[in-house]
């Protein structure tokens, strides 16, 4: 919790989840009526996003924990077979095996105890035995990130679910819907301001934007695609997005003026929003964002982005 990287990624996740800085939220809200209760909408969307994130966290770590348990049990079985082989070939003595250990129903704790005894007694030649410690925490630490989470960890875990084909279909159907939802929001952020400013045929312009985006997307489906995904994620998602949000915040709170903005909201809503918003918009948000972007720049200077 004390690492700046954790907070930086958390803030970036909030930007992505709420669609901040992409223009999609502003584009969608431009279609609202003048008396629309945008205060209620903003609070509702924030709470829905919060609870969705909590739910996603529970699901992700439950699946990763399920997978880690399976892999750990597999590790115990494989290494127990190695130990049995060493016992049969007299490489290891039967005296090293605790009397309560039953190889047909070997638990993780029994294996850990047996592993500790063998490691202590055979200290000099232990490495030659090729036994693994089979610690659950090690399996959890191997959990992949980014695209690997969806396409490797989840798919591997779902093969062990009851009715796994059904869950696999539902999982990838969900991914497609998430992708389409994100794309529609982002594309609206591009098309709406252009269509509002210039007399352009909406259908033709939207198709052209989709074709350009599709051609750009081909970069990410090459064999080297994951490298470009990581590079874009490091350079185009975090820092520029934070800069855009800071500029949006400053332009409304300091250039347009928070008092004038509050008056606009009062005219729209019929009541004046809480003064807490005034201080959050004018002071708290810009300071937090500036601290965030400073931490990002310092981290990128000290630890240059890499690809594993």
TrEMBL record:
Residues annotated to bind Na(+) 2: 49
One Gene Ontology MF term: metal ion binding
Transmembrane residue ranges: 12-31, 43-64, 166-192, 204-223, 235-256, 276-298
Binding locations of Na(+) 1: 178, 182
One Pfam family recorded for the sequence: SNF
Keyword Metal-binding on entry: yes
Membrane topology: Multi-pass membrane protein
Alphabetized PROSITE patterns for the sequence: NA_NEUROTRAN_SYMP_3 (PS50267)
Stored InterPro entries: Na/ntran_symport, SNS_sf
UniProt keyword Isomerase present: no
GO biological process, one term: alanine transport
Upper classification of the organism: Eukaryota, Metazoa, Chordata, Craniata, Vertebrata
Localization, UniProt: Membrane
Protein name in UniProt: Solute carrier family 6 member 17
Ranges in coiled-coil conformation: none
Keywords from the UniProt entry: Membrane, Metal-binding, Sodium, Transmembrane, Transmembrane helix, Transport
């Amino acid at each position: 919790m004390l690492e700046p990287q954790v907070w930086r990624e958390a803030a970036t996740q909030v930007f992505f989840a709420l669609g901040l800085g992409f223009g999609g939220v502003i584009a969608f809200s431009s279609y609202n009526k003048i008396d629309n209760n945008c205060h209620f909408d903003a609070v509702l969307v924030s709470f829905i996003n919060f609870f969705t994130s909590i739910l996603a966290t529970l699901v992700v770590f439950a699946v990763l924990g399920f997978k880690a348990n399976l892999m750990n049990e597999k590790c115990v079985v494989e290494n127990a077979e190695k130990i049995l082989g060493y016992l049969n070939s007299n490489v290891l003595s039967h005296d090293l095996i605790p009397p309560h250990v039953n190889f047909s129903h070997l638990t993780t704790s029994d294996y850990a105890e047996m592993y500790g005894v063998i490691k202590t007694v055979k200290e000099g030649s232990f490495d030659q035995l090729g036994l693994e410690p089979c610690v659950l925490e090690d399996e959890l630490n191997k959990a992949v990130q980014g695209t690997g989470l969806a396409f490797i960890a989840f798919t591997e875990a779902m093969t062990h679910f009851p009715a796994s084909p059904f869950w696999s279909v539902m999982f990838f159907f969900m991914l497609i819907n998430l992708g389409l939802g994100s794309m529609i929001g982002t594309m609206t952020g591009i098309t709406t301001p252009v269509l509002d400013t210039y007399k352009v045929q909406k259908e033709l312009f939207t198709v052209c934007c989709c074709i350009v985006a599709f051609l750009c997307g081909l970069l990410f489906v090459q064999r080297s695609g994951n490298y470009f995904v990581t590079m874009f994620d490091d350079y185009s998602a975090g820092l520029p997005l934070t800069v855009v949000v800071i500029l949006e915040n400053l332009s409304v709170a300091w250039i347009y003026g928070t008092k004038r903005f509050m008056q606009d909201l009062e005219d729209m809503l019929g009541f004046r929003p809480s003064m807490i918003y005034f201080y959050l918009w004018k002071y708290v948000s810009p300071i937090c964002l500036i601290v965030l972007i400073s931490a990002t720049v310092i981290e990128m200077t000290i630890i240059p982005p890499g690809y594993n």
